[in-house]
Amino acid sequence: MSNGSDLGWSAEGGVPTITDVATAASVSVRTVSRVINNSPKVNAETRIAVQRIIGEMDFTPSARAQALASGKSRLIGVIQGDENAHVLGRVQHGIAQACAPSGHELLVHPTSLSGDALIDNIRAFIRRSRVDGLIVLSPTSEDPTLAAIIRQLRVPVVALASCPIDGFAAMLISRDRDGGGAVGAHLADLGHRRIAVITGPSVRLSSLERLNGLRDELTRRNIVLDPDLIIEGDYIFDSGHSAAEQLLSQPIPPTAIFACNDLMAAAVLKVASSRGVDVPSQLSVVGFDGTDLATMLTPALTTVHRPIADIARRATDVLLTMIGAGPADRSTPLHEFFDLTFTPRESTAPPGWSADV
Question: 262-274 and 237-248 are packed helices; what angle lies between their axes, rounded to 10 degrees?
Answer without folding.
Answer: 40
